[in-house]
Write a structure and sequence with these properties.
Blueprint lengths: L1 H37 L23 H7 L1 H11 L2 E6 L2 E6 L2 H8 L6 E3 L3 H7 L16 H23 L9 H11 L6 H32 L1 H13 L3 E2 L2 E2 L6 H5 L2 H13 L5 E6 L3 E3 L2 E3 L4 E5 H7 L41 H18 L1 E4 L7 E2 L5 E2 L4 E7 L5 E8 L6
Parallel strand pairs: 2-9
Antiparallel strand pairs: 1-2, 3-6, 4-5, 6-9, 7-8, 10-13, 11-12, 13-14
Helix pairs in contact: 2-3, 5-6, 6-8, 7-8, 8-11, 8-13, 9-11
Length: about 425
């Protein structure tokens, strides 16, 4: 009995010793991890590195970011300020919020900073895309290579089918234009260039447009007064008559004259910017908000949080298109308080086309049918990789039959959980 008690005590002592050793090892390794990044500060600059936490060794705060979602940025901004350091996706990162801070980054392209997306994104898109026009891919991971190979295989099949079936088409899609653009300049694009270009279109245009379209529909569903005011504008411009869209194609100048519609689109993009921000690599150490931003670090400027914290916007959580009306013009008070398409030399190339697409969609929804939510509650929204409903948005559309009776035409899943 005595020996059994001794064995139990010995086992417990061994367990406690191991637990204490592991705890101490973790504490020491985390401290060394913090010191490792503190040592990267530019010694020639007297300013301190931004406050913040580098998380755990190697993984940093990546898991915190994935689990917390939008709360990650807001909680750390409240604790450390508009400029703070962290470690995400294998790299040290300084996250930046605020119009003046963002302005300095966007206007410092090629002098202070250079565009660089995270390694996973660069690996997926390939070296021939506009987004990756600066910097090489130095390391390869087996998760990104396999995903890229699968995408490339499917894209090549689709491109070859398109190249072989060119007869009988009365339209040109984005890939047709991409193919023809090379011929116009006397150089046919290679298959690899076509695949990379197509993949970039999906990355930069399809997912973001689908996200903004879904956000637009959700807000029209939630705010019937906004939808009715939009219909009133369409009626006043002769576009909508007796509940039906007037015959004839919509002209660009007509759409441009719909001021309230423009306010609705701006407000959707303010509250639900598809992507959270942009990435830059620091070319030379510079000052930001009283801190040094060391050469070689990555910087992410936050579009979404800049919108949320901009003092020019009143009641920032309220969907209020009139804030962009002629009487208020809140977006005019400071150039970088509102930047759904980025800014500087890297402003989104497709911003005008994207806004036109959203306006055409809004006109179609407001004039040709009644629509309502097909589920009992609105879906939960997630922000990664773009703003989208976790389980998709299901909507019922009601049209009119030949006797002007309302009928259910279809139910659509506007944007699924995978983008």
């Amino acid at each position: 009995m005595l020996f059994q008690s001794f064995d139990l005590v010995s086992a417990l002592a061994t367990f406690v010793a191991c637990l204490v050793s592991v705890t101490l090892l973790l504490a020491v390794s985390q401290q060394l991890w913090q010191l490792r990044w503190a040592a990267t500060r530019d010694k020639s600059c007297k300013l301190p590195i931004p406050k913040g936490s580098m998380g755990f060794p190697l993984v940093g705060e990546t898991f915190h970011w994935l689990l917390q979602g939008s709360c990650f940025q807001s909680s750390r901004r409240e604790k450390y300020g508009n400029v703070f350091k962290t470690h995400l996706l294998g790299r040290p990162l300084i996250r930046v919020t605020g119009a003046e801070n963002v302005r300095k980054i966007l206007m410092g392209e090629h002098s202070l900073v250079s565009t660089e997306w995270p390694r996973s994104t660069r690996m997926l898109l390939g070296p021939n895309t506009v987004a990756n026009s600066i910097g090489d891919i130095h390391r390869h991971k087996r998760k990104g290579i396999r995903a890229r190979e699968a995408l490339q295989k499917g894209l090549e099949k689709a491109i070859r089918e398109k190249l072989q079936n060119t007869q009988g088409k009365d339209y040109s899609d984005a890939l047709d234009i991409l193919i023809e653009s090379g011929k116009e300049h006397g150089k046919e694009l290679t298959m690899q260039e076509l695949k990379d270009g197509t993949l970039e279109l999906i990355f930069a245009a399809y997912a973001t447009t689908a996200s903004a379209s879904t956000s637009l529909i959700m807000q029209l569903l939630k705010h019937s007064a906004v939808l009715e005011k939009l219909r009133e504008e369409l009626r006043s411009k002769g576009i909508l008559h007796n509940g039906c869209l007037c015959e004839g194609p919509l002209q660009l100048d007509t759409i441009s004259g719909l001021h309230y519609l423009d306010c609705v689109i701006k407000e959707v993009l303010r509250l639900f910017t598809p992507i959270s921000g942009g990435y830059r690599t620091v070319l030379q150490t510079f000052e930001l908000d009283g801190f040094q931003i060391p050469k070689g670090w990555s910087v992410m400027y936050s579009i979404r949080d800049t919108h949320d914290t901009a003092p020019v916007f009143k009641d920032v959580d309220v969907f209020d298109p009139d804030r962009f009306g002629q009487g208020r013009t809140e977006d005019k008070d400071g150039r970088f308080n509102y930047l759904p398409f980025g800014g500087g030399v890297r402003t989104c190339l497709g911003k005008h086309l994207a806004k036109l697409f959203l306006k055409a969609l809004a006109i179609e929804l407001a004039s040709t049918s009644r629509f309502e939510l097909a589920t009992r509650t609105f879906p939960r929204i997630t922000l990664v990789p773009v703003v989208h409903p976790v389980d998709g948005l299901r909507v019922k559309f009601f049209g009119l039959d030949s006797n002007q009776n309302e009928i259910l035409t279809e139910t659509e899943d506007m944007l699924g959980a995978t983008v």
